[in-house]
Amino acid sequence: MSAAFSPPFTPPDRLVATLRQDGYAVLSPEGVSQWLGVPLSDLDALHADWFELPPDDYLKDGGRYRTRRHACFTVDGAALVQVPHRAHWQPVEYNALHGGMQRWFAPMQEATVARAAWQKIMHALAEASSGLRGTQRWYVEAHQFRIDTTDGIGRPTPEGAHRDGVDLVAVALVGRHNIKGGETRVFEAAGRRGERFTLTEPWSLLLIDDARVIHETTPIQPLVEGEAGWRDTLVVTCRAGGFQGD
Predict the structure, then answer these.
(1) How far apart are CA 180 and CA 43, in angstroms?
(2) Which is nearest to 240 in space by CA: 80, 129, 83?
(3) What confidence tens digit (pLDDT) does each residue in 146-167 have?
(4) Residues 10-52: pLDDT tens digits?
(5) What is the pTM of this model?
(6) Separation between Cα atoms, residue 101 and residue 126, nearest integer Å
(7) Using CA atoms, how far apart are residues 156 and 176, in angstroms rounded to an integer?
(8) CATH classification of 12-186+208-231, choosing from 3.50.50.60, 2.60.120.620, 3.10.310.30, 3.30.2010.10?
(9) Pairing mode of beta strands 220-222, 179-181
(10) Radius of gyration of the chain (CA)
């Protein structure tokens, strides 16, 4: 098994500056708590929702390793609005495997999006997006993912290294259990520089300037054969001008 490299954590007060400089930044769990003004216990309370995610029925590789829920919002200043449930759509230029198709995932539970911690996350990510692109209305898509090792291997990014066609991508590790792998890799979209590290602590958070950085996560396998393994993440994207597919 290859070595696991620690994430290059950024202080919360340097988040936007680091995003502008490097195209990505990583906050530690304590940094996320400070950045949001939310105790980690409130974030940890969200994790129970990941144990009730329905299957992703759109995997073109025939896998059964991914369950998920999806919700969309707009954030305009202090106004956070959940929009009517809609399909997730990406162009094939950004997702060669699953692009060009409307994917209707199960909606997030009402109790999840009603939590104060959830709303703090949405507002903070919109604010970070404004730090990159200027203050404006943000069109936000949120995905709860569980990747498991039911079939021996799970693929967090079956489409490979990619961009998402948005302005900001945020990947929070919500939890991981009995797995090896799941290494995060980020690369310059217009250069050769890259970095690799493994998110291991719940509520570590990676933020990416999607215009400048390509990202992927390596497959996971069970650490102990015959025992269940999984990796839970919250992926949120912020896009200016509208949702993709409008």
Answers:
(1) 24
(2) 129
(3) 999 998 999 999 888 899 999 9
(4) 999 999 999 999 999 999 999 999 999 999 999 999 999 999 9
(5) 0.94
(6) 26
(7) 12
(8) 2.60.120.620
(9) antiparallel
(10) 17
